[in-house]
Amino acid sequence: MNFKALNAAVVICGALVCSGAGAKELTIGFSQIGSESGWRAAETTVSKAEAKKRNINFKIADAQQKQENQIRAIRSFIAQGVDAIFLAPVVATGWNAVLREAKEAKIPVVLLDRDIDPSGKDLYLTAVTSDSVHEGKVAGEWLVKAVGSKSCNVVELQGTVGASVAANRKKGFEQGIAGHANLKIVRSQTGDFTRAKGKEVMESFIKADGGGKSICAVYAHNDDMMVGAIQAMKEAGLKPGSDVLTVSIDAVPDIFKAMAAGEANATVELTPDMAGPAFDAIIAYKAKGTTPPKWIQTASKLYTGADNPQAVYESKKDLGY
Ligand code: GZL
What we know:
The protein is α/β, with parallel strands linked by helices. It folds into two domains: about 5-130 and about 270-290, 3-Layer(aba) Sandwich (Rossmann fold), CATH 3.40.50; about 130-270, Response regulator (Rossmann fold). The protein is built from eleven helices and 14 strands. Strands 4-3-5-6-7-13 form a six-stranded parallel beta sheet, with helices on both faces. It has a six-stranded mixed beta sheet with strand order 9-8-10-11-12-14, sandwiched between helices. A two-stranded antiparallel sheet has the order 1-2. Helix 9 (about 255-260) links the parallel strand 11 and strand 12. The chain is elongated, with a radius of gyration of 22 Å. The protein starts with a helix and ends in a 5-residue tail after the last helix. About 45% of the residues are buried. Residues about 5-15 and about 15-25 have low confidence and may be disordered. The chain binds beta-D-galactofuranose. Beta-D-galactofuranose binds near residues 37, 130, 193 and 224.
């Protein structure tokens, strides 16, 4: 084989597992939670594109937000003998038995965007996630600055019950407002990360408050619930973005549309590209035995209405949300 051809073979091998018999395409199974939010849909779109870039045979199983479907998908991937399994765990507990089966089958597991209970730490190779406590803290600290010294009743729309990111975003937000007694979380309930549920729960908060006039701010664990809450506030004659401050997480296009309309105030960005770093870690692990760090952290950036929301909307609107 001449040098040029050898060089080309090495390049191709970067994305494939190279053995004596030649390069083998990697097959990876992804147990995806569902399509509960714009961010989740973007994560799926981006993961397919990243797999294509690396010539990986990528099989996605949509669990419609049910853990039993995720466990079933993982067992199916094990039976198929895939090279690796990606898992976005809908909740943090209940994974150890099935992940032990993957380990016994010598199939490495990578967690995407959410974490599992620390008791399962030795059952996955690495986790590609943001720091969800930090996300909540950034949201809380923004609200502290936005409110100043006036008293502020905050209502909170929590993510899916039992999800690591919901517990962490709640914890981080409480850290962010700690020491500022003028801010108080007066109501808090799960909206399951969906627009519909976010709207429904916000309607109940407004009703319980006798019209919502004493609600000073809404904190939602994701933008989709906030978009639903904004709808509920407008239907109740409230002014989200001005009379009622809003802060949420994900940085999906529609929250920038709301910001541009003066109906939302702040969001903390979460990249939908969790799969890219996961693919690179698995390729290096399979090809060269490189063990990745236990946690591959993705960035979190605060956006407010001062960051040209219309332009940000335009830049994100075609990315698969
Ligand atoms: C966070 C991710 C969350 C998003 C939601 O890492 O798990 O799940 O914030 C999605 O939009 O439902």
